[in-house]
Amino acid sequence: MATFLYKLGRLSFRRRHFVALIWVALLTLAGVGAASAPAAGNSSFSIPGTEAQKAFDLLEQRFPGASADGATARVVFKAPSGEKMTDPGNKATVQETVKELADGSEVARVTDPYQAKAVSKDGTIAYAQVSYKVSGMELEDSSRDALQDSAQDARKTGLTVEIGGDALQTVPHTGSSEIIGIAVAAVVLVITFGSLVAAGLPLLTALIGVGIGVSTITALASALDLGSTTSTLAMMIGLAVGIDYALFIVSRYRAELAEGRDREEAAGRATGTAGSAVVFAGLTVVIALVGLSVVNIPMLTKMGIAAAGTVAIAVLIALTMVPALLGYAGRRVKPMGEKGKRFGRASKEPSEQPSNKPERPNLGTRWASFVVRRPIAVLLLGVIGLGAAAVPASSLELGLPDDGSQPTSTTQRRAYDLLSEGFGPGFNGPLMVVVDAKDSDDPKAAFAEVGDEIKGLKDVVTVTPPAPNKAGDTATITVIPGSKPSSVTTENLVHGIRDAGTDIKADTDANVLVTGSTAMNIDVSEKLNDALIPYLVLVVGLAFLLLIVVFRSILVPLKAALGFLLSVMAALGAVVAVFQWGWLSGLMGVEQTGPVMSMMPIFMVGVVFGLAMDYEVFLVTRMREAYVHGEKPGQAIVTGFRHGARVVTAAAVIMMAVFAGFIGSSESMVKMIGFGLAIAVFFDAFIVRMAIVPAVLALLGRKAWWLPRWLDRALPNVDVEGEGLRDDPDRGDTDRELVRA
Known about the structure:
It is a single chain. The chain is an alpha+beta fold. The protein has helices at residues 2-14, 16-36, 51-62, 88-101, 141-155, 175-193, 196-224, 228-258, 263-290, 298-329, 363-373, 375-390, 411-423, 443-455, 488-508, 517-551, 555-580, 585-588, 600-628, 633-660, 668-700, 709-714, 734-737, and strands spanning 72-78, 107-110, 125-132, 160-164, 398-399, 431-436, 460-463, 467-468, 474-481, 511-515, 596-597. Strands 6, 7, 8, 9 and 10 form a five-stranded antiparallel β-sheet that branches. Strands 2-3-1-4 form a four-stranded antiparallel β-sheet. A two-stranded parallel ribbon has the order 5-11. Helix 8 (228-258) runs parallel beside helix 19 and helix 9 (263-290) runs antiparallel to helix 19 (600-628). It is elongated and about 90 Å long. The model is unreliable at 340-356 and 729-741 (pLDDT under 50).
């Protein structure tokens, strides 16, 4: 592989005009496609195989036109101090608001609080429920505006009016976070390379790759039912790996220049060596993202595949466009060790260097030498530290965010609190019980038995009478729990109703299904939790096999996988400590603690695993390269750090900055993802890869690179170390024939 990529790098360097033209054409084509594509709404959300989804599907069949999965909004009214909602003036305001809301084109129905008995016992709080024909993610902005305008008009009369429900649900915008991440990346790259031109190359190529990927997703969004969250994930991951991969190749290019090679040869060797690491690092990311399909949530599968496509584009750009741009840059990209005069650190000519003063080793060399001398102490300190950080993960509780997790400044959170005050905390998470009595001899008796059975369960506050459909074979029953939607008690109630339904089916042949947003959240959390182990086995297993091919070792890939699991567990522990226990919650801007988002563990595994393997492949391949070329195991570790530590550090700092920018979001879910990914990258890059990995390799010595002979013969030789580039007779004397750029 190294020889092929070497030739590709040189070809891209020589034919840079052609290569640049191809990528610009692809970017233009994707941009035109995105601009001309029909506007696509957000992706439809379904959870195949869950009971909540089966109930939704049944409601669509038995209650046609009822919009069972349609968005809902609760407009909550609170009377001024000393007044009641039943006072004539307040009642008139509410009824006028209900009338305005009913005029919306997407509104299916609006309930009058006074007819639906939706007034609190003390008469101070009332609510009107608005049901829409489409889901919250498909709702037009005009409908949301009309909802908010009606509430604002009611506030002018002196009432407190807040809006809850999923009708106001929108996809959070993260543009400012991306800008912050790019700005920090630019600063880190300038410090790393000491040159604006060299720093600009990874940024430019990453932005081009993300532009092509996101534009393609936008162009296909309508046809493939891709939501805006798909492009957000693709942008986040594409920007991260795009900068990393280009950074690796540019850094290796400068190292090759420092060894005296001309620019085309240096570009070829950089692509052949660092490019090989990029290919395999990219494959691990693609495996992790495509592996999300095992969860069997269509939206998550589409997000993973789309992001994987963007990663593949980033790899191709790093292998072709980066060498091409290096050709354009010419002497403006200096050899490693030289700094531009703009920074006041211009290098001296070799003749000007004092011959009697040895060059001081860089920080990476000094650190690796220390670890090689004290491997046991470093290993124990790293493992104990991460183990301590992982302890809170044993108390992990999973759930999906609701209005109760919103900041107190939002109308959704204030409506949530008002409903809890007037009707109890469980009122924010009603359960819809669907009774399918089509096969029952006496449907009405079955409906009544279900209602009576539910009333006898613990934590049930209210059970509404059964509401049958026109055919009389299916009915819905609304159950109000006594606890808030995200509580373990409510989850136990859902399971209790389902367990009771098993006995009822045996008696009446009626199926009992529990659905609604609360039940759906519980089912999604359980589905994601059940899929975590198979996902880990698939992703880590495939990557383990891939890394065996890369490193031609058993213990090095095993160490990489175990180190990754340790860093992910530590990161999950930090998330639990902050978002569930409330540690440092004020510093992080966490206003409401609660269960960790159910998607967080599997999302962290996918994203962090890919990035962790980037650092593992790039750092350890330099060690493997030095070892293959004759260095002793300990010296190979030091050599790998001398060449790779600075680059891996820069890449990790960039990724942490990109992810940490999301901590400032007002959305608790986005905040949690940003914090979790940032702390995971910190743990993995600086503790696992920079400390535990060299310590383990130092302890193992030559055993680290052991591979059974039969397996060595069976595995393909991908030559990631670039052994085929040393004294390759096919190149002849072409180096002397090349014209320096």
